[in-house]
Amino acid sequence: MSAPRVAVVGVGHLGSIHARIWAEHPEVELVAVVDARPERARDLAAELACAALADARELPGDVDGVCVVVPTAVHAEVAVPLLERGVACLVEKPLAADLEQADRILAAAERGGALLAVGHVERFQPGVRVVREMGWRPRFVECHRLSPFSFRALDVGVVHDLMIHDLDLLLDLCGSEVESVDAAGGAILTEREDLASVRLVFRNGARANVTASRASLQPMRRMRLFSPEGYVSLDFQKNYGIMITKGPEFESGREALRTMDPMMLALRKDWITEKVLSVTELELGGEKRPLQAELDSFLRCIREGGRPEVSGSDGRRALELADRIVAEIRARAW
């Protein structure tokens, strides 16, 4: 098969990263970058040796895949005609500005028989992939996703901008729909919510506390998962994970620990962390960035077919939950 021909529509901060990854990829041909600001497209196209276009409708008919990285409000406007042509699309998260537009995108993909993937890039975090491979179904999860104010993505609030990453992960990892939502938050620096905190109860009994802010001084991207099998802590920012499970001497050690005084506990710390418990640093690797892994997955789907790791229906489900949380926040806005 000849190298798939790809393009990127919307080459702001994130879109330009998409384009550079494709331009360096040995197995694809980046044919064009598209942006409503012609000078931005021209500058990037000159750097990456591809065509510069001002409108996605100008893309050649033989393009195989397109990354849609325009503002959320125009995702449907850009993606629908491409999908109806049968062009595979990776649409950045959130899938659309609202569920009506999300349904238009999904319907266009079905009509065109086109591949539709959604850019929930955190699914490709090494730590998340390790947890999924272990097959654990967490019973309680804590998520913190905090960021300094970036002056980007101001067409959506923090729930659709940042928290939606964790909402998608939770829906996937917990394997259940959400039964109830208790949310709080509000606007600080913009007209939309900049802080959000929510407690989710899933139909299978799992619980999650999720906090997102884009008005913090220091960034943080952490997730802690608890299940009957053990506990996992992931720091996405540092690409670090640790797992705690029962050790080989858990049952006997638990009995001994009940009568052990504090001084003896201090002296036997290694025994506790190596025998009573099993404390393991997860092997996460770092050879491939999550966005690189996401684009490689999209490329495999273009070549081989099959369901993308994050499908259009996955993107719609995360959007529906995000909308539900925002409605709850606005009903109680401070």
Question: What does this entry look like structurally?
Answer:
The structure is a single chain. The chain has 334 residues and is α/β, with parallel strands linked by helices. Among the domains are: 5-120 and 290-310, NAD(P)-binding Rossmann-like Domain (Rossmann fold, 3-Layer(aba) Sandwich), CATH 3.40.50; 244-283, no CATH class. The protein is built from 11 helices and 14 strands. It has helices at residues 13-24, 38-48, 75-84, 99-112, 126-134, 158-174, 250-257, 262-267, 269-276, 290-304, 312-331; strands at residues 5-9, 29-34, 51-53, 65-68, 88-92, 116-119, 140-146, 178-186, 195-202, 207-213, 220-227, 230-235, 240-246, 277-281. An 8-stranded mixed sheet has the order 8-9-10-7-11-12-13-14. The mean pLDDT is 94.
Please summarize what this structure is.
The chain is 39% helix and 25% strand. With 334 residues, it is of the alpha/beta class. It is globular.
